[in-house]
Amino acid sequence: MCSKTISDCVEALIGAYFIGGGLTATLSLMKWLGMDVEFNPILIDDLIRNASLWSSMPKVNELETLETKLCYSFSAKSLCTPLRPIVEHI
Questions:
Q1: Angular region, 37: left φ>0, alpha ψ -120 to 50, beta rest
Q2: Are 42 and 60 contained in the same domain?
Q3: What are the entry keywords (predicted)?
Q4: Are residues 59 and 77 in the same domain?
Q5: Of 2, 31, 51, 85, which has the most beta carbons under 10 Å away?
Q6: Residue 89 is part of which domain span?
Q7: Are 90 and 67 contained in the same domain?
Q8: Tens digit of pLDDT per residue, the chain (90 long)?
Q9: How far apart are CA 69 and CA 71, in angstroms?
Q10: Long-range contacts for 56-61 (Cβ within 8 Å, ≥24 apart)?
Q11: What is the Cα–Cα distance from 67 to 64, expressed in whole angstroms?
Q12: Any idea what DSSP says for residue 62?
């Protein structure tokens, strides 16, 4: 098996662990595989809690401004998280 195939398999495993078990499970797998990762589970839990999607949500008035300028109303406003830089340039 070539090294590219092996690295693709390892990447798929890491991705599966991340999706299925979260960041702590992923880092545990990486450590088990022999990768040099050191982590403190308490710090990871704090990081996840502090980096919630709500902290990056655009403010309601920013979305309203964009909707007014576009003459459009977004039905799923939670999907508009990357809009902040766009709103500033319109």
A1: beta
A2: no
A3: Hydrolase, Membrane, Transmembrane, Transmembrane helix
A4: yes
A5: 31
A6: 55-90
A7: yes
A8: 788 888 889 999 998 988 888 888 888 899 899 998 877 777 777 776 776 555 555 566 777 887 888 888 877 776 665 544 444 444
A9: 6
A10: 56/81, 57/81, 58/83, 58/84, 58/87
A11: 5
A12: H
State whether 4 and 31 are in the same domain: yes
Can you tell me the distance from the alpha carbon of 6 to that of 81, in angstroms, rounded to the nearest whole number?
A: 35
Give per-residue burial for 50-84: e unless 16+ CB within 10 Å, then b.
eeeeeeebbeeebbeebeeeeeeeeeeeeebeebe
Q: How many CA within 13 A on the CB side of residue 90?
A: 14
pTM beyond 0.90: the answer is no
Q: Among all chains, which residue has been given the structure tokens 């998280």?
A: 81
Total domain count for the chain? 2
Tokens of 65: 């401004």
Tell me how crowded residue 40 is: count the other CB atoms within 10 A of its CB. Answer: 9
State how far Cα 39 lies from the chain centre. 18
